[in-house]
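Consider this today:
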Amino acid sequence: MSLYTKLRQRAAECRPVRVGLIGAGKFGSMYLAQIPRTPGVHLVGIADLSPDAARANLARVGWSAQQTQAASLDAAIASGTTHIGEDWRALVSHPAIDVVVECTGHPIAAVDHCLDAFAHGKHVVNVTVEADAFCGPLLARRAAQAGVIYSLAFGDQPALICDLVDWARTCGFPVVAAGRGHKWLPHFNQSTPDTVWGYYGLTPEQAERGGLNPKMFNSFLDGSKPSIESSAVSNATGLGVPSDGLLYPPASVEDIPFVTRPVSEGGVLERKGMVEVISSLEANGRKIPYDIRMGVWVTVEAETDYVKNCFEEYNAHTDPSGRYFTLYKRWHLIGLEVGMSVASVALRGEPTGVATGWNADVVATAKRDLKAGEMLDGEGGYTVWGKLLPADKSLRIGGLPLGLAHGIKLLRPVRQGQSLCWADVAIDTTTRAYQLRREMETLFADSDARVA
């Protein structure tokens, strides 16, 4: 039975999937825009540090004030409306909530939200992929131990890539490579919130008019977010990662099967079975026509002459050998698609992507020469960007995960381009995020044990 049919059935039975949302910013607002148009779903409550901002976003996406006037979660359930407040603990502990959507974008807080939701028997759709990047394998294990589902969020690129990988493997195709697109040139990893709009092609005035957050946008531009998302995909699918960071080969959609082959066959991959990100810019900055910048893709291999001939007979666009074929989605709709995860988790008991092992990590790396005493400002800021590395390499160097590299002091100088380690910083060891990460390092230190 399709998810939509299942949702309609729940609506007919007056037994909706009851959802709690933590964080009603841009991503959350996109999901909020779709909830009234989705049968069988009741958003019981929203927890946000600024309830007034949450109400403003609800009004922006078309909700009426009457829909959000419930004085409590119990009143919201009784009336079919939505309660807005600051107390996320009340939300995740309420017995009627089925699924919690973590949408804060704050990785340290997200770990607390996920762990408490698991403890209260709630499924979690985690939009804050930054948290998944540094402790997703152990979050997945904790959810399983609690008998609940932990899932990446559909609409965000990692879950969409996982879906393509699952399609390929279910159809019997070996996955050669999978990933997303990105606008990339090598010097972007030094970009700061002061330079981001020039690289994006916007003026500061246009960005201010649109209310755009330069640090958030810079986290995409400087390579941090592509590394984070590629880490989540690797840990969920078992695909490997490049030994020294993403390569960002430039390619049009037509050229993806050409470049996502092993080096031995004319491509860029160290070996078959890797994650990678395709750039929409040539090395000289020229924009590539028909790019995959906003999309996702998977490259598969025809292992037999019969399958290769089928590719040819049905005009599938392949590499020159006829053996490598790429399937893609050129766009993703971000928060507008989160309903797929909520329905899959609640109605099928299936995540739309979840870590199955620890293969990849994202390590904070200096954007410039840093001095002892400086404060790191995390993803998208002025000091560090996130470099994708194999998990075993990160373990060997004691790599500092990007998700924990915010608001902490540097103890010694670090050169530009150098990846930071735990010994370089003074970090708060009392957070559950830090403790979970360190526990994961101990648990998965043996390469044979890196399976969630």
